[in-house]
Amino acid sequence: MYRKNAALLVTIGLLCALEYLQAGMIAFASAPIRGEIDASPEEFTLVAALYACIAVVVISKQRWLVERLGWRNFMLGSISIYVLGAFVCGVSSDLSSFTAGRVIMALGGASFMTSARLMVNFIPPGPGRFIGVKVFATGLACGTASAPFISSLVVVEDTWHAIFWVLIAGAVTAAALGTRFLPSTPVPEDDRTPSSPTNILLLSVSSFFLLYVLQRSYYDFYNETFILIAFALLAALGVYIFFHAEHSKYAPFLKVRDLMQPRYILGVVLFCFTYIVLGSNNYILPYFLQTGLGYSWDTIGTFQAFGLGGALLAWIVMSAVIPKYPAPKKFFVAGFIALICFGGLLSSLTPDANMWSNILPALMLNGCFVMLVLATAAMQTFRDVTHHDTLFAHAYQIKSMMGQIAMAIGTAVATLFLQWRTTVQYNNLNGHFSSRDPLYLEQVQHLTQALTPEVGAGPANQMSVSTLAQTLHQQSTLVASMEYFWAIIAVAGVALIVSMMQKTFK
Question: Which CATH superfamily, name and number, covers 1-193?
């Protein structure tokens, strides 16, 4: 089976890996890239919002384009556009060219993961199709685990452009393999999905404003709370109107009405929950490890890769268990227990924590959570819609569109939580940062005495105060991050109870 469908299986794995690889690498290396292209955090936020908005629209049009172009032309065209965008990013040296490259990459590559999952259905139903699902999940795990490692390597070597050469190599390989099996015949005209330019425009504008407001909230939420919430609600209303309009149509662009089934609705909710947690953890972990615990960039990247390798280990175990014991509830329960343990391990760390014994096990549990919940949800959510290719395609498109928004929500929630709690903890600790506090005076005196022989009394006193100020910031970040992990424990506990009580995924 592997040999018969080798080109198809490798392409599926590559396309899925590329999606998680590009998202993970650029997110992990965002700070160094900003510095190289001279972009402020707010400007880089706009780039991220543009990419996510275009991704939502492109994913929504995936099936519509395949029906008119045929699979081969669609994929070769998408990969060509993606490669062009990656090349523009790879040679960019300023914000404008980098933004143009990311927009082009979104136009070509946003639908890679959706297309990869739909290609699994090229394999006839039976054990062979499950092999396709296994390869798809393996690509997800490998892309997720490799992203921080590769991006940390290229950043440390001062060659951040290499991120895009890696993506180009993977995309070109997928294109070469795709020509061997992708059908080129378009769908007959009578069977094609109709489109509505007005609804697509509504989706484009609403998703952009929703994603941009979420990204913008990182910087302005506490100053412009009412305005940001109002715009976010209006944008969310626009997205709702889009789906409501599709639900009401006799010949819809997306078959929303046919998908209103308990299994699919619960599955999409589960996907969105997991993506929110994933987006939050992806933001918190590097910041916590670097600012709170003081680890270097390359160390963080390497250990995050090791940790996310837990997703691959979890999938190896799952693929052995599923054929004999396919019931999904045990995997959901195990996934949320892993998330609780992840939060528990990181909620009580100290600055002298050991990366191997204290942090790596927690990172691996985070990887296990991602795979146990996401892979199981992927296999269960679409079980009732696989009988019709178009319906299954629309179901996966909607899931992927909601996933883009959920990831942005997760990052926004984590950012706002960390800003809030860091400020609170900084103010609490700053009460001791006073000449009237005996502990503060003792620490300043101790550091000054240690530094005076090297730099003199005046500079030594200034350096002592500066060192204590840095320690104050580190401690406030550390405590705020621990509070985040306690929040994760609470959220995962609720999810665990719900997963045990629900009866849709037995």
Answer: MFS general substrate transporter like domains (1.20.1250.20)
